[in-house]
């Protein structure tokens, strides 16, 4: 039923959007262990292959223990290697987003020894541990500032994966993020660039998770979302070809926009991919096409960055099975069918850009931190939204406490708010 109706504000002219399309760079030789013996020629070969697909940027990762093996020691040689990689990407024609504190990568956690064992420090709450991470981000920012192909500096990859071993409250997370974002901005200085943070999906639909939707949608220069089809068993629950799966990234963007205080705040689909067996290899090309095209239907989308560039070589042990097949290139460097599908889709979207259709109907989301899961796969709200989408509507998401806010609704072009059926 209709919950409320508003008059839409006069739309501003919507120039042709320039969406960004990129890939998260995973080195073909040695995965991220390659930082132990960095080979510029191999890295340049990987980056050239990425650029040849038509992507315009990469997101890159160093390992925290190699950068900062002691709380008060940041290794100049390791920072220089990172800067070298950024320059190689620029030479290949790629802009670069740098993640600072890794942290968590592909199911492995990388902690410096000064945070572990007898020296254990909670990385989110210990004041000296926080200041050490801030010092690392300031150092990285100063080392990279001024490069014209640098997109910016992100605090780290999905830092909320570390909460299991580092208990933290939502208020403490806010302090942690605010401190590190300020340090990253200080490091980049007047040269500027994006300053961001990222979290995996529990931040959006994990009940009482200490990393909150509000933190993701309001801190930093834009909102990053990582809509993975294995989260809440989405692909297994609905099927790999289901609308719930193929519209998941689009839904993630709209959900993020609901929590933002700035209606114009951009949203970046920073990680999405086709993990086997959740998405069988035969379905991966169509999944990739649909995911990118559906996300492009969202106003305010900054871009899409695929996970990931290269498969993990099976000579490396103990990865979850899905990690071995997530790349656009296999471990020999051969482009897979999904790479070709994405290249064609990106080329088409660039050749024929169009403005998204208005989302003048919004579905009301009424949840608390303890019932946030209703908005995730399997939840009643998620299923109501995807049902509307399947029926041909393009619903926005609006929070219950803003459903009567005429200014907020008008700024987003929302004319009516409906309750989930």
Structure summary:
With 421 residues, the protein is of the alpha/beta class. 34% of the residues lie in helices and 14% in strands.
Explained architecture:
Keywords: Hydrolase. The protein has 2 domains: 16-353, Glycosidases (TIM Barrel), CATH 3.20.20.80; 357-421, 3-Layer(aba) Sandwich (Rossmann fold), CATH 3.40.50. Helices cover 34% and strands 14% of the residues. The chain has 14 helices and 14 strands. An 8-stranded parallel beta sheet has the order 8-7-4-3-2-11-10-9. The protein is globular.
Strands, helices and their partners?
Blueprint lengths: L1 E4 L14 E5 L15 H13 L4 E5 L2 H4 L8 H16 L3 E7 L2 E2 L2 E2 L17 H18 L5 E7 L13 H19 L5 E3 L5 H4 L7 H6 L4 E3 L8 H5 L4 H4 L1 H12 L7 E3 L14 H12 L5 E7 L29 H15 L9 E5 L14 H11 L5 E4 L6 H6 L4 E3 L3
Parallel strand pairs: 2-3, 2-11, 3-4, 4-7, 7-8, 9-10, 10-11, 12-13, 12-14
Antiparallel strand pairs: 1-14, 5-6
Helix pairs in contact: 1-3, 3-4, 4-5, 10-11, 11-12
Supply the CATH architecture of the largest domain: Alpha-Beta Barrel
Helices and strands: which structural class?
alpha/beta
Count the domains: 2
Major sheet: arrangement of strands: 8-7-4-3-2-11-10-9
Mean pLDDT: 95
Pick out the low-confidence regions: 1-15
Order of helices and strands: EEHEHHEEEHEHEHHEHHHEHEHEHEHE
Helix-residue proportion: 25-40%
CATH class of the largest domain: Alpha Beta
Assembly type of the chains comes to single chain
What fold name stands as the CATH topology of the largest domain? TIM Barrel
Organism: Streptomyces ferrugineus
Protein name: Cellulase family glycosylhydrolase
Keywords: Hydrolase
GO molecular function: hydrolase activity
């Amino acid at each position: 039923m209709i919950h409320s109706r508003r008059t839409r504000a006069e739309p501003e002219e919507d120039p042709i959007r320039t969406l960004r399309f990129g890939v998260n760079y995973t080195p073909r030789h040695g995965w991220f262990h390659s930082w132990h013996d960095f080979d510029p020629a191999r890295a340049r070969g990987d980056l050239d292959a990425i650029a040849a697909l038509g992507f315009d940027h990469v997101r890159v990762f160093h390992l925290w223990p190699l950068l900062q093996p002691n709380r008060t020691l940041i290794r100049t040689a390791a920072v220089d290697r990172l800067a070298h990689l950024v320059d190689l990407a620029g030479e290949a024609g790629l802009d670069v987003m740098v993640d600072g504190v890794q942290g968590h990568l592909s199911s492995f956690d990388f902690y410096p020894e000064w945070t572990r064992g007898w020296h254990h420090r909670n990385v989110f709450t210990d004041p000296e541990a926080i200041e050490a991470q801030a010092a690392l981000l300031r150092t990285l920012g100063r080392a990279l500032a001024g490069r014209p192909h640098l997109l910016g500096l992100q605090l780290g990859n999905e830092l909320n994966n570390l909460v299991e071993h580092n208990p933290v409250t939502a208020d403490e997370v806010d302090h942690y993020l605010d401190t590190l974002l300020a340090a990253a901005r200080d490091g980049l200085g007047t040269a500027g660039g994006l300053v961001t943070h990222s979290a995996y999906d529990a931040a959006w639909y994990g009940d009482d998770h200490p990393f909150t939707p509000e933190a993701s949608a309001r801190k930093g220069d834009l909102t990053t979302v990582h809509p993975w089809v294995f989260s809440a068993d989405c692909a297994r629950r609905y099927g790999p070809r289901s609308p719930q799966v193929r519209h998941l990234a689009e839904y993630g963007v709209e959900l993020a926009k609901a929590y933002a205080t700035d209606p114009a705040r951009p949203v970046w689909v920073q990680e999405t991919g086709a993990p086997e067996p959740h998405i069988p290899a035969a379905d991966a090309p169509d999944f990739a096409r649909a995911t990118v095209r559906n996300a492009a239907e969202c106003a305010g989308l900054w871009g899409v960055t695929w996970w990931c560039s290269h498969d993990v070589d099976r000579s490396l042990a103990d990865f979850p099975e899905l990690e071995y097949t997530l790349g656009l290139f296999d471990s020999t460097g051969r482009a897979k069918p999904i790479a070709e599908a994405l290249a064609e889709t990106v080329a088409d979207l660039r050749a024929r850009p169009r403005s998204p259709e208005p989302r003048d109907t919004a579905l009301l989301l009424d949840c608390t931190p303890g019932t946030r899961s209703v908005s995730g796969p399997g939840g009643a709200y998620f299923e109501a939204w995807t049902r509307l989408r399947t029926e041909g509507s393009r619903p926005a998401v609006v929070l219950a406490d803003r459903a009567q806010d005429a200014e907020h609704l008008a700024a987003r072009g929302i004319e009516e708010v409906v309750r989930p059926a």
